[in-house]
Write the structure tokens for this entry.
Amino acid sequence: MKKKILILSGGISKERLISLDTGLQVAKVLKKNDYEIKISEPDNNLGKHINQFKPKVIFNALHGQFGEDGYIQTILESFRIPYTHSGVIASSIAMDKEISKKIFIKNKINTPKFITYSFNKKFSDLINEINKKLKFPVVVKPINEGSSVNVYICTKKNIKKILNLMKSYKKIMIEEFIGGREIQVAVMGDKKLGAIELKPKRKFYDYQAKYNTNAKTQHIIPVEMPKNKLDEVMNMALKAHKVIGCKGVTRSDFKFYKNKFYLLEINTQPGMTKLSLVPEIAAYNKISFKELIEWILKDASSKR
Ligand SMILES: Nc1ncnc2c1ncn2[C@@H]1O[C@H](COP(=O)(O)OP(=O)(O)O)[C@@H](O)[C@H]1O
Ligand SMILES: [Mg+2]
């Protein structure tokens, strides 16, 4: 009998389109393999879809808010059907850049210095704090968004304008700007899968550089780096995966500057689109897209 898989994609986050693409790619590869597939939105009808279809596993292809942050995971727990990737707690910790960075620091995983801002003090006081603790330029970003949505590099000159753009957020993060190279590492279960380097043609690895093929970010694999440094960054990613309590596949984003790695974040639901990095790292390590997706499905049924 065909194994029933329900793919959850779309959703309400700013990464909706990427999630739909991830869902389609997963459906395409599984269909070829005699699975029975249903694609569903995480909306009011989800319960009905699950009860009617009775999937063996739910593939969570959602990204961002309500898909990657523990909310949908809490709902999925109530159905008692295995679902892919991290559970409730790890998902919510990883999605919150402030909490996850505090855990990285506690565990001696190097991460850029940062402050948070809740729009509760004068801009001039904030500028003073930045001068004292971080120095310009800085990176301003939301605490719980992905795909470089609303990530800005700011100078003293333009920060006021950028902060005004971000007023809809309750709290944002301001980090020291780290120059140098962009390295991302995939972890699969309790194993380091591999690393990839990104050379964006744009100012940084922003939304266009990530998803617009014309923006031409160069993907470099294998990463040209001494073996001991590669081991170092892969060990940092594995440690981050473990201390956050992640499951399945994760992707950690690093900067490499003056021979030092800085962990920016860990992603618990890495994209699986044609331009996505985890499938590319897997392919380089002789794991096909099909094998990767089937491993994720199998892992979903193991203990959380
Ligand atoms: N502190 C920083 N210094 C330099 N570049 C940064 C910094 N933080 C983010 N960036 C750039 O912005 C991109 C997105 O930031 P990241 O923290 O990974 O958030 P997201 O969850 O949106 O992917 C990074 O891949 C990097 O190119
Ligand atoms: Mg990132």
